[in-house]
Structures are given as C-alpha cells and as structure tokens.
From TrEMBL:
Keywords: ATP-binding, Nucleotide-binding, Transport. The keyword ATP-binding applies. SUPFAM superfamilies: P-loop containing nucleoside triphosphate hydrolases. This is ABC transporter ATP-binding protein. Residues 7-243 form the ABC transporter domain. InterPro entries: AAA+_ATPase (IPR003593), ABC_transporter-like_ATP-bd (IPR003439), ABC_transporter_ATP-binding (IPR050763), P-loop_NTPase (IPR027417). Belongs to the ABC transporter superfamily. Coiled coil: none annotated. It comes from Alkaliphilus pronyensis. PROSITE patterns: ABC_TRANSPORTER_2. The keyword Transport applies. PANTHER family: ABC TRANSPORTER ATP-BINDING PROTEIN, ABC TRANSPORTER ATP-BINDING PROTEIN NATA. It comes from the Bacteria. GO terms for molecular function: ATP binding; ATP hydrolysis activity.
Length: 324
C-alpha cells in the first residue's frame, strides 16, 4: 500500500441520451484521491458532479475511461470495489426515519458485519465526533434537516469503509451547522485516514474542507490543483489606484517598469489604474513616482480575490491562466 491511490478516476466519460441527442455529462475527467485526503468536486449546477459520484459508487454505468477503487476496476470488479465505498447521495439517504439515531447506527453496523465488541466503541466514537449525544435516542424523523444530514453521514462511516463519497454534504445546512460539518469531515479524514470525495457548488466548503480539488463545468475539468495553490496562484497583490488627473505618457511608461499595469481607465474627473505588484515594497516606489510626476492620489485599495471570485473567473474563462 502506502503509495496506492485509493480512488482513481481515469478519463471518465458519461453520456446521456435525451430525445435522440447525446449529452456528455462527464467528459474525460481524470483525478485521484489518496487515503487521508479530502478531495472536492466543485462546479455549478449541471456540471456533472452527481454523475461522477454515481459512476464511482456503481449506481451508473460509464461510457469511457475507468474507475479504480483500491485496485479494482468498477467495470469488471465492481463488487470488490464496492466493499471499500460508502456513499451519501442527496435525497437517497439510507436512514430509517422511525428508528432512533443510535438504533440506525446499530442497524447499519449490523448489516455491514462488524463484530459486536467493536460496534459499541465505534458507535460511541461517531456519536461523539458528530456531537449527537443529545439526539442519540431521538427518532430520526423528529430531527432537523441538518441533524438528519449529520446522521446520514455518521451512518456512512459506521461500516468503516476506506472511501466516503458525499454529494453536497452541506447543502441546505445553516451557517453554523455547515461549519461544524466541515470540521467533522476534515477530522474524520485525518484521524481515520479516510479517502473523502465530496461534491459541492460552494467554494467556501472546498476552502474549509478540502486538500485538493477539481473545478468542473459542463462535464469538463477546468482546473485541478491543491486548494492552497489555487489560492496563491490568484492571490497576487493587486491595487486599484485612483488619480486626480490623467497620467501622462511618461508616467505610464515609468509605472510599467515597476509594476504590471493591468488596467487603465481615464474618466472625466480622474483616472483609475489597476496595478499588480510582486511585493509591498513596490508600493513605495509607486508613491515616489506619483510624487515626482506631481500627481495627486485620490484613493488606493487592495483588491483581494477569494476563492469564490477565482471560481467565478474560471467559469467565465474556462481556463487556468486568467489572472483577472
Ligand atoms: N438521467 C439523466 N438523463 C439525462 N440527462 C441527465 C441525467 N442526469 C443528469 N443529466 C444531465 O447531465 C448533466 C450533469 O448532471 P449532474 O446531475 O451530474 O450535474 P451536477 O453537477 O451534479 O449538478 P447538480 O448540482 O445540479 O445536481 C446535466 O446537463 C444534466 O441535465
């Protein structure tokens, strides 16, 4: 083991046929997820996230490429592969609504063949992890939507499989429940060395939970990276500068020597510039330039880009290179 990726998705293709036409819901998607890693599938509605997850957990056949689960191809070794997978899909929760939280956990541990000595220990562990102490004897039907989602995810972990697939695990949760869910998921992946693949359309969920991600749109991967890299790639120091008057050509040329001039707009009363700097020190040089040219500064503000902005840009441009 060690180096083996628990989940490999290689050149996956999934087609749907609707009214004699073909929809490429998943188009040549390749990624792998290691043990202990939380991996995000990020994309807008219809991007193909659910289709990918359903292909991985054997609910859908695929049309091209392959999915390898702990060494088993889901094309011809599906049953062996499935032994390593637990999935929580939206609207398809394996919960018994009339049983209590604890009864559900016991039931699903039973049918998944865990020895009884370990069952109690694991149930207690999950009840603690998911902070379900107060709800453990409540009938699931009486719980809030967020609580039900927590229970569904706890159940997916009771059998102690290697790979957990979660389709939109924070959808419809309130802010505090969503935060709690993110930290539970991260904790479980790290503590138990699980491979967690989650889909979401929410960049904040990815930012708080995932190690790596792919961004998909219309079935295609448009970015694949670590969350950190993707953030730093786009976290350049960009400043929006407003000047009292239009810069003379000389100033423009001088500015270009110090920083990257991304945008320059002359309005009736003033001029705004968008400058990209490599470090804060360049800002001092820029101020010096304005002073030497006798130009008054009206305003300067740092333009920060969070992942949300990056995501929106990527969807717009559908490529990795864009900076603004
Ligand atoms: N059973 C189906 N028959 C025909 N087309 C389908 C079917 N299921 C999904 N699609 C289409 O495939 C594409 C990808 O859908 P999918 O549900 O995988 O996307 P998604 O990223 O999960 O989006 P959402 O967040 O809206 O569920 C969409 O264009 C969708 O309309």
């Amino acid at each position: 083991m060690g180096m083996v990726d628990y989940l490999q998705v290689n050149n996956l293709q999934k087609l749907y046929y609707v009214n004699n036409s073909k929809i490429k819901a998943v188009d040549d998607v390749t990624f792998n997820v290691k043990a202990g890693e939380v991996f995000g599938l990020l994309g807008p509605n219809g991007a193909g996230k659910t289709s990918i997850i359903k292909c991985i957990c054997g609910l859908l056949d695929y049309d091209g490429g392959d999915i390898i689960v702990n060494g088993y191809s889901m094309k011809n070794k599906r049953r062996k592969g499935l032994r390593h997978i637990s999935a929580v899909l939206e609207g398809n929760r394996n919960i018994y609504w009339r049983m209590t939280v604890k009864e559900n956990l016991e039931f699903f541990s039973g049918i998944n063949g865990i020895s009884s000595s370990k069952v109690k220990e694991r149930i207690n562990y999950l009840i603690n992890q998911f902070q379900l102490q107060q709800q453990k004897d409540t009938v699931v039907n009486k719980l809030s939507r967020g609580m039900k989602q927590k229970v569904a995810i706890a159940i997916s972990l009771i059998a102690n499989k290697d790979i957990i697939l979660l389709d939109e695990p924070t959808l419809g949760l309130d802010v505090s429940m969503s935060h709690e869910m993110r930290s539970i998921l991260r904790g479980i992946a790290k503590d138990e060395n699980k491979t967690i693949l989650l889909s979401t359309h929410d960049m904040n969920v990815v930012e708080a939970t995932c190690d790596r991600l792919i961004i998909i749109n219309k079935g295609k991967i448009i970015a694949k990276d670590t969350v950190d890299n993707l953030k730093s790639l786009f976290n350049k120091e960009i400043y929006k500068v407003t000047l009292m008057e239009g810069p003379k050509n000389q100033l423009k040329e001088r500015l270009k020597k110090v920083a990257q001039l991304l945008n320059y707009q002359k309005q009736a009363e003033n001029t705004s510039l968008l400058l990209q700097l490599d470090n804060g020190n360049q800002l001092i040089e820029i101020f010096q330039l304005f002073k030497e040219e006798g130009i008054s500064l009206i305003a300067i503000e740092k333009v920060t880009k969070n992942l949300e902005g990056i995501f929106i840009d990527l969807l717009k441009e559908e490529q990795h290179e864009i900076l603004l």
